Amino acid sequence: MLGLEGPCWVGLGPDGGLAVSEEFGDVRLFGSARQPLCSLGDLTEHHFGTLAGVCTDAAGSVIVADEQRRQVTLFPRARAPICLVSEGLRWPLGVACAPQGQLMVADAEDGYIKVYQSHLELA
């Protein structure tokens, strides 16, 4: 996978592909054969700060932690981005989504893993 600008975090992407966050730029999506599909910034016109963790939920939506903006954003497949969490985050560095819908955010500033019961309820 060439052409990435400071790849930092990698996670499973929609449909068996990959989602890669770049240090100062965007989140790139790759297909299951590792072919480039799109960038979330170009696709949604969303402006990122400093990207950190990235993951995908059971519905194939991409979830991104943004250190600079201190927020976690959901990128549904066919809708505009939705800020899931911003309150109480000081330095969101990692993000994961459990199959049952729980959202887990690693907040490096206070040393906690913050668990939200259902990210779908946050949206």
What best-fitting shape do the alpha-carbon axes yield? globular
| Secondary structure tally: strands | 11
Mean pLDDT score, rounded?
89
Low-confidence stretches: none
**Tally of helical runs:** 2
Tell me the helix content. Answer: under 10%
Helix-strand makeup class: mainly beta
End-to-end separation: 32 Å
Radius of gyration based on Cα positions: 13 Å
The topology string of helices and strands comes to: EEEEHEEEEEEEH
Proportion of residues in extended strands: 35-45%
The main sheet orders its strands as 1-2-3-4
Largest sheet: 4 strands, antiparallel
Tell me briefly what this model is:
The chain is mainly β and 123 residues long. Helix content is 7%, strand content 45%.
What does this structure look like?
- The chain has 123 residues and is mainly beta.
- Helices cover 7% and strands 45% of the residues.
- It contains two helices and eleven strands; from the N terminus they run E-E-E-E-H-E-E-E-E-E-E-E-H.
- A hairpin with a 5-residue loop joins strand 1 (7-12) and strand 2 (18-22).
- The radius of gyration is 13 Å and the shape is globular.
- The termini are far apart.
